[in-house]
Structures are given as C-alpha cells and as structure tokens.
Write a sequence for this structure.
C-alpha cells in the first residue's frame, strides 16, 4: 500500500518560488516557513504577514431551513447572525466533545459559508451532511471553489486598501464582518477575521486567481514590511494570542467549557443543539479540568504531552508549546485538573526530567 | 545546497567533528542539520568532564517546532562547552562550523575518528 499523494494548494508553485520549505499537514503539502519562523512571526506582529490557508475546507448551506439546521449543529447562535457578518462556533458531539471549531459567514438571508479545519474537513462534511438531511436545506462541499489567503498584522488593512477601489473603504469593515469586493481583478470575499491576534483580512477567492492576487498583495505591502509566512509562524502567533487549535486545546476529549470557550456555547438557545445536554450538565457541575496558558522563565521549550505536576503529583499535561518570538520565552497551553487550580498550588512542567515553574498568564501572552 | 567543508568528519546523524591534532576535537551540527531544524532557540549541553560512548545522546537542540537529540560522534570526554550558545543559540544557524560549535572533546580512541564519514561520503547523504 502506498500513501496517497499530498494535496497541494493553488499557490504551491508560488511558495516554492518564494523559497518555502514544505511539510505534510493534514494531508496537504504546506509551507512551514520561507525565511524563518521567528522572522515571519515578528513581521506579522510589527508589520504584516501573508499566509496561504487554502487547505482550510469550505462548505455552503442554503435553503429555508439553513439557519435552523446550523442552530441545531452549532453551539453558538446562527439564526440571528446578520447578513455580511461572521461568527465563531464549535460543532459538538452529543457527549459535548468537539467535532470541529469553525467560522460561519452569513452570505444571504438563506445562505451561509462555513470555513472548516483542514484536518477535519472530511469528517465535518459527513457529520454536517448527515445531519442536514433532516432539514429543508442544501449542504455542499465548496472546498475546491476557494483559495484562502490571510493578510494579518498592524499594516494589513492599509496594504489591502491599496488594492481596493476608491469607492470602498476596507478600513471601515467591522471585525467579524465581510464584504464582496474586486481586488486586483479578482472577485472575492474579504473578511475582517484572522487567527493571529492581529488585525487583518481573510480573502476567499477562486483558486485560479490566487497567484496573481498573492503577487499583487506582496507588491503592495513590500515597502511596509509585508512577508510571506508559513504554518510555523501561524501556529506560534495563534498560541501567543491564546487561540485554540483543534487537536490541541479542543478535541473530542476536551470540551469547549474546559477550553474556556463557554462564550461560544449558548446553552439557553431555543431548540437546543447537539451536545447541549452534556454541556449543560458539565456547566452545572463545573468542568473537571481547564485549559490554561503559561509562560516559562527558562530556555527549555514545553511540548505537547509533557507532564504538569503540583507538589510532585501529576495534575495535567501540556497541549501546545513553543517559544514566543516576542517575549523570547517559552510559552504554552496545558490541561489542568480543577482541584489543582482551585488549590492554587505552584505548577511545574517536566521538560526532560527538569521541573520548571509555570507562570499562568492570560492571553494575549505577547502583551504580558 | 548546504555547505560541507572538506576538513571535517561527519556522522549520519548530522554532527561534524574537527580534530585539533592534539587528541581533542570540536563537535557541532552540520549546515544541513541547522537548515532542517529552522530557528534554533535553545541548546542543552553536558557539563565539562562528562564522558560519553560513541552514539550516546550528549544534549538537545530545540527549534521553534521541535526538540532533537544530539549524538556524540566518537567515545569522548567533554573538555569544554560553547557557553556563547546559552545566550546566542542562533549562532548554530548562522555559523554552524565556526561560532556555532557545541563541544570541545578529548577523543578516547583516535582511530575512531578515521572511521567517521568524510566530506564526500556525507555529501552523498544530504
């Protein structure tokens, strides 16, 4: 048996020409870095970064019961989402475990666009497709219709605005809103969202126009310090910002309440949703463990699955770890038993036999 | 293409060794290794005086993405470590064959050095 050839985005050749190093990621061959993760990370925090996130999946839901269907599968409110607005939500299993975390865009009174995690796209399509059968709506995989580029950083909006017609003010698009716009000849959806903790846009456009658009953006932002960035920087940026990554801070085993995402779980939503009862029960009892973020005053880097202890006894494990290129200190997230957090016991993480004190911190960690 | 200087010896695990001619040698990781690891943020090294068998783990190099073990090319005792790497681990990226050296070792058996890969053999590997 041979492994399936990795999928490539429409920008694969563009990445190679810009010196990318590729890694396998969720069945895709994606750029992990161009010049270096630290440099790309800092460019995004101080100027702007351009990320190809075309590996993300997309799906559309349309029809008279599109909103009712989404309210049934999503933990957050979907029916009252305004046209032109976007919202973060979890999809949960009946036991409250997370199937995926997604962004939902309301594209019309009876139509939505969903952005899915690359590694979960296949599972989401069958999960959502299965549940959609009970509703008067059409659920379609639209992944092949879109390339997705994220332009993030303090100069991102200014750079995008340079490509926009004078009649449109991209700076006036509110956070978690989107517009349909023509930028450098390509019609696209420009959404004021992102996954870095910085201001910016995510663009959904036809794959055939992705290269020309990436070139136009890079040219428009060259004098402001825009750099192409890989998945390495995307991961360190999201961790500094305290944004969850599926399979790390949330999973089938880690519920949204444990992950501190209760704000996106509307237990009192009329009609309920899949997982509602389990989550209501967990909320009433109080989650038995919690995801926390931390900084180490050390050089050794915490990594997923390293053991966290209090008074020499294991009380949790690391979920994500890296070095903050802004703090120049190791940072991470961990899942800790509630009892240890309530006791406020000093926590240590075991890095290769060395117990290092953890300093719990509220994200964004780079603004500590 | 990564650089492979002619005057060094190499291991399959991408360490280099530079004999000084007096029974000691410098050890580091190759240009290929540093490039594959990406930005190096921490190098964990043993204390001078520590003894290692050939192929034993003598330390760890941490990049943003992962931690990787470092292997002793030949049986040896550590004479000195490059303390500059404590504050400037990026030297391993910038000058892997010069300021990015990791250990000065006293080689237990000089004939073992000759059995390491030469530049031509290592170039074939990378």
């Amino acid at each position: 048996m041979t492994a399936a050839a990795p999928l490539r985005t429409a920008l694969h050749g563009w990445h190679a020409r810009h010196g990318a190093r590729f890694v396998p990621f969720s069945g895709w061959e994606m750029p992990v870095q161009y010049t270096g993760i630290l440099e790309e990370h800092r460019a995004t925090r101080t100027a702007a970064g351009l990320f190809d996130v075309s590996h993300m999946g997309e799906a559309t839901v349309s029809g008279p019961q599109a909103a009712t269907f989404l309210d049934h599968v999503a933990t957050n409110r979907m029916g009252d989402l305004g046209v032109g607005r976007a919202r973060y939500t979890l999809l949960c299993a009946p036991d409250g475990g997370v199937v995926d975390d997604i962004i939902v865009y309301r594209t019309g009174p009876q139509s939505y666009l969903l952005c899915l995690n690359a590694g979960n796209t296949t599972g989401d399509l069958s999960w959502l497709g299965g549940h959609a059968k009970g509703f008067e709506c059409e659920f379609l995989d639209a992944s092949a219709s879109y390339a997705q580029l994220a332009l993030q950083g303090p100069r991102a909006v200014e750079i995008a605005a340079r490509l926009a017609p004078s009649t449109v003010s991209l700076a006036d698009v509110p956070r978690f809103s989107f517009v349909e716009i023509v930028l450098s000849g390509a019609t696209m959806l420009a959404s004021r969202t992102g996954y870095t903790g910085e201001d910016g846009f995510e663009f959904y456009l036809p794959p055939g126009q992705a290269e020309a658009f990436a070139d136009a953006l890079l040219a428009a932002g060259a004098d402001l310090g825009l750099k192409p960035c890989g998945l390495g920087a995307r991961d360190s940026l999201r961790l500094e910002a305290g944004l969850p990554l599926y399979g790390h801070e949330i999973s089938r085993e880690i519920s949204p309440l444990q992950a501190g995402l209760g704000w996106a779980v509307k237990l009192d939503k009329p009609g309920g949703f899949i997982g509602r009862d389990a989550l209501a029960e967990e909320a009433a009892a109080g989650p038995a463990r919690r995801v926390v973020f931390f900084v180490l005053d050390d050089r050794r880097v915490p990594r997923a699955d390293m053991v966290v202890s209090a008074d020499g006894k294991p009380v949790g494990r690391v979920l994500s770890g890296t070095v903050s290129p802004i703090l120049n200190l190791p940072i991470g997230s961990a899942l800790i038993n509630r009892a240890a957090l309530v006791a406020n016991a000093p926590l240590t993480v075991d890095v290769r036999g060395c117990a290092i004190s953890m300093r719990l911190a509220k994200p964004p960690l780079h603004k500590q | 293409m990564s650089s492979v200087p002619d005057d060094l010896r190499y291991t399959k695990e991408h360490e280099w060794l530079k004999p000084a001619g007096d029974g000691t040698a410098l050890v580091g990781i190759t240009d290929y290794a540093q490039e594959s690891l990406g930005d190096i943020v921490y190098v964990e090294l043993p204390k001078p005086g520590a003894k290692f068998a050939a192929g034993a783990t003598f330390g760890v190099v941490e990049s943003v993405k992962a931690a990787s073990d470092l292997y002793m090319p030949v049986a040896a005792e550590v004479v000195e470590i490059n303390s500059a790497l404590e504050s400037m681990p990026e030297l391993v990226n910038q000058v892997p064959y010069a300021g990015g050296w990791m250990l000065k070792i006293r080689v237990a058996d000089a004939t073992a050095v000759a059995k390491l890969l030469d530049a031509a053999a290592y170039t074939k590997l990378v």
About this structure: Chain A has nine helices and 19 strands. The two ends of chain A are 50 Å apart (CA to CA).
